[in-house]
Amino acid sequence: MSITTERIRRCLLTLGTAWHGLQAYEAGEALYEIYRAACVKEFELVLDQSGRLLRRRLRPYFASNRQADQLTFNDIFRHAAKHCLISAGACERWLEYRAIRNETAHEYGEHFAERTL
């Protein structure tokens, strides 16, 4: 089974570029806020793409693709750790990333963005 990683690679490159740009400005400056918004958006895209790619990679461990496709985001990462596709530590970090994303999903403004960063 071939899994295409072009989209997540592009998202990671964009996230890295946005993060680097963010470092050049102080909070409150317009370009800081633009780079911060780009970081938040790319973070969400990387999170989503990571889950999708892992779900596809987990399919052989289930009786059917449908079973793998019905996994929740957190279960995807737990099963990935269980099958040694990622480490237990990486699993915990991804679950924490998702929790932060879920906590801030309905917040807007500076607090939301800074929490996500």
Please give a structural write-up:
- This protein has helices at 6-22, 30-58, 65-69, 73-82, 88-104, 110-116.
- It has 117 residues and is an all-alpha fold.
- The protein has a single domain, classed as Four Helix Bundle (Hemerythrin (Met), subunit A) (Up-down Bundle), CATH 1.20.120.
- Helix 1 runs antiparallel to helix 2, helix 2 packs across helix 4 and helix 4 (73-82) runs antiparallel to helix 5 (88-104).
- The longest helix is centred in the middle third of the chain and has 29 residues, at 30-58.
- The termini are far apart.
| Helix-strand makeup class | mainly alpha
**End-to-end distance, in Å?**
34 Å
In CATH, the topology is named: Four Helix Bundle (Hemerythrin (Met), subunit A)
Which residue ranges are poorly predicted, with pLDDT under 50 across at least 5 consecutive positions? Answer: none
Helix count equals: 6
Mean pLDDT: 89
Approximate strand percentage: under 5%
Shape: elongated
CATH architecture: Up-down Bundle
